Amino acid sequence: xxxxxxxxxxxxxxxxxxxxxxxxxxxxxxxxxxxxxxxxxxxxxxxxxxxxxxxxxxxxxxxxxxxxxxxxxxxxxxxxxxxxxxxxxxxxxxxxxxxxxxxxxxxxxxxxxxxxxxxxxxxxxxxxxxxxxxxxxxxxxxxxxxxxxxxxxxxxxxxxxxxxxxxxxxxxxxxxxxxxxxxxxxxxxxxxxxxxxxxxxxxxxxxxxxxxxxxxxxxxxxxxxxxxxxxxxxxxxxxxxxxxxxxxxxxxxxxxxxxxxxxxxxxxxxxxxxxxxxxxxxxxxxxxxxxxxxxxxxxxxxxxxxxxxxxxxxxxxxxxxxxxxxxxxxxxxxxxxxxxxxxxxxxxxxxxxxxxxxxxxxxxxxxxxxxxxxxxxxxxxxxxxxxxxxxx
Length: 392
Description:
CATH topology of the largest domain: FAD/NAD(P)-binding domain
Helix content: 25-40%
Oligomer: single chain
Number of helices: 14
CATH architecture of the largest domain: 3-Layer(bba) Sandwich
Strand order of the largest sheet: 6-2-1-10-21
Largest sheet: 5 strands, parallel
Number of strands: 21
CATH class of the largest domain: Alpha Beta
Low-confidence stretches: none
Number of domains: 2
CATH superfamily of the largest domain: FAD/NAD(P)-binding domain
Mean pLDDT: 96
Radius of gyration: 24 Å
């Protein structure tokens, strides 16, 4: 029986372990933290968006430059397959109005418990507090509470994550280990990150308020998602979807009234104002919330003369910012092992028998099901092919 080691117990690593064990390999799953799936559980606190049920061309578009490399993997484990897999673990799922797929339980813990139960039934050995240090004389070396441990597997799958939320285990330290073996990685960068803004004092009372219904843009990236005001800047799905544009240096703007044209807004602003303040007038004739009005005043005060000019500002409000929040606060990271360093099986060309999966790979995607879906798909792909390589 072939012995396989999987390093990293996030979604990609767990899926790789399941595939290897199902193929008859003896599997040891090593995790540096005291428990498995920590970032997976964190993602589940907001609902655990497993995948997005939409046509393949639209789905792949979310992966930008990496869509060609990821296409066979996401096609082999598409949204329908993800749902079947979850149901087989006893977790019923539903699809929301936007195509996003969630467990009915709306959290990760029941699915993770069922998944770990399946791995246990398959005979997978799980070793926590086993921090991978690299190789020594061909063996995998781990730092453990009991001292150094070496393992000599027939095949290895690396699924150590990116470089955000380090307290949950994704440190990115593996990049140095691979570099020492001649495998260079693309530099890490924050993805799906909040935007940093130095607010004036008058914005404080609006912290926590949502900005709904706006259309956010930064260069070629756009989103109709919601954002929220925080002491640190702007957070939320609408911002995360365009954060790459901000990272690449494009100006961030928001159309607060995307369903109205400039002439329509101008016509509403032309209604009699009486003694109402500008803020009350904007609220009454355009249904803008106090948080939206405060954002306009923060970013565009003094408003230009003329109602049409004001309408144009509301359609393309510039959001002054100081860039993205730090990488460790980002939901995910760009950068990692380039696909050019891997063969079609996700095996490192220069390190035979070493496969890579999940966020270690150099790809990024917006939130909305794409992140977990690609981690599951690449973990499945790497695990299946690692098993075949070990048998051969």
